[in-house]
Amino acid sequence: MSITAPQLQTILDEIASIAESTTDKGRVADYIPELAGVNPDQFAMAVSRPGQSTLIAGDANTRFSIQSVSKVFTLALALGKVGDRLWQRVGREPSGQAFDSVILLEQEKGRPRNPFINAGAIVTTDTVLEGATPSETLGAILRFVRAAASDDEIHINDQVAQSEITTGHRNFAMAHYLLSHGNLVNAPEQTLGTYFHQCAIEMTCAQLANAGLFLVGGPEAPRLVSDDRIRRINALMMTCGHYDGSGDYAYRVGLPGKSGVGGGILTIVPNIASVAVWSPGLNRYGNSKLGTEAMQILAEKTGWSVF
Ligand code: GLU
């Protein structure tokens, strides 16, 4: 049975008020100095369904740093550019390790486990960058995101990117390690400069929900990638989209999702909806604490699940 817009709006409003009254909001990521000062008391949720108006609750028009949610868009671009050849350089298995872990990279000789952990995303960005300049590549990424969201008011926050360029030592270590294994085509500074700027894309929850529509599928959703690719990207979001918390998210929410350390989560309900949630405080896996709880409630109340 499909849910009407008023019913869905009531659920979203209920979730926003639960989030507001929850005292433990998690911890804001502080390893990126520019993100450390974000007010943890903010919460927003948005649901976008193909051909229907976007429904919002909370601070859904406040921009936040999408960080690793951007990896979904670059993965789509990399697959569009090199197809299955991407899998020669990156795996497709959950890592069971933190997003910035270097352990597996050493054990697996410079082939990252999946495209959503940092090392894998650096390779994915490197793939998109090959043969182009960082600004051309960022232009292509922004064009893709804006086309997906049907919204040209989506930009990169340069201060956030610069903040990571100054402090992203682990990512630099990973890029150099990849290079030592012949799995980085461009200079580390070029690939990481592109990667940090891609992570520094800012969106509102409403914009992010709209941008996810290309992964929903169905006759009314925007067609930016093939049906086959939609299934594959969703499968990777389900198995790897929340780092070492991916199993927990699949268990609690039952839908493919991708989180970012800015506190955003994009979740896809195949053939039905794209949902964005944002709350800056993170849980122990580095995923939005209230965002995960909110998605769990939404899935329970709507019955939305891939299972
Ligand atoms: N830009 C962040 C980093 O590379 C992204 C991490 C995330 O959002 O999980 O550390």
Q: Low-confidence parts, pLDDT < 50 over ≥5 residues?
A: none
Number of alpha- plus pi-helical segments? 13
Question: Average pLDDT value?
Answer: 96
Q: What is the CATH domain class of the largest domain? A: Alpha Beta
CATH architecture of the largest domain: 3-Layer(aba) Sandwich
**First-last Cα distance:** 16 Å
Find the count of extended strands (DSSP E, 2+ residues).
10
Strand content: 5-15%
Secondary structure: helix percent: 40-55%
The major pleated sheet works out as: 5 strands, antiparallel
Number of domains: 2
In CATH, the homologous superfamily of the largest domain goes by the name DD-peptidase/beta-lactamase superfamily
What string, H for helix and E for strand, traces the elements in order? HEHEEEHHHHEHHHEHHHEEEEH
Task: Tell me which ligands are bound.
Answer: glutamic acid
List the helices and strands and how they pair.
Layout: H1 5-21, E1 27-28, H2 33-36, E2 44-48, E3 55-58, E4 64-65, H3 70-82, H4 103-107, H5 118-129, H6 134-149, E5 155-156, H7 158-167, H8 169-180, H9 188-199, E6 201-203, H10 205-211, H11 227-240, H12 246-252, E7 257-259, E8 264-269, E9 273-278, E10 281-282, H13 289-302
Antiparallel strand pairs: 1-10, 2-3, 2-9, 4-6, 5-6, 7-8, 8-9
Helix pairs in contact: 1-13, 3-5, 5-8, 5-9, 6-9, 6-10, 7-9, 8-9, 11-12
The chain binds glutamic acid.
